[in-house]
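Record now logged for everyone:
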Amino acid sequence: IGHLGRDAETKFTPSGVSVSQFTLATNRRVKDNQTGEWKDETDWHRIVVWRQENLAQYLTKGKQVYIEGRLQTRTWEDQNGQKRSTTEVVAEEIFLLGGRGDAPAEEGFGGGAQRGPVSMPRQSRPQPASAGPADDFDPGPGPAGDDDVPF
């Protein structure tokens, strides 16, 4: 469970398959062993959603979501010839929970965890070999700084 750090961005592979990407911030409480004080720490995760271009309109900065998926590491060569890699979560189930910018209740989203999932049908979930590399899909900038925390 976390909050979107930016609006979902949707692009299409050369074969016409949609791929959306956004960052998700998750918080955890940790105890400082030296001072004994509790503090919040934020972790940022890259999320990728295949074949769900209509979902992107609901995935806006600050929105609270619950995501189930699998980890995937990709490597590529950047413009300078440097080998780069990133690990991301390939979302298979997304539950819209609440948070800033909720749509009105009559639209069927927002409000709370009692809402149903927005999920990918089993037959359209990409298999690792068939998903193919999204060479034209830029992994984007790194995690947002403290000034860009959405909540």
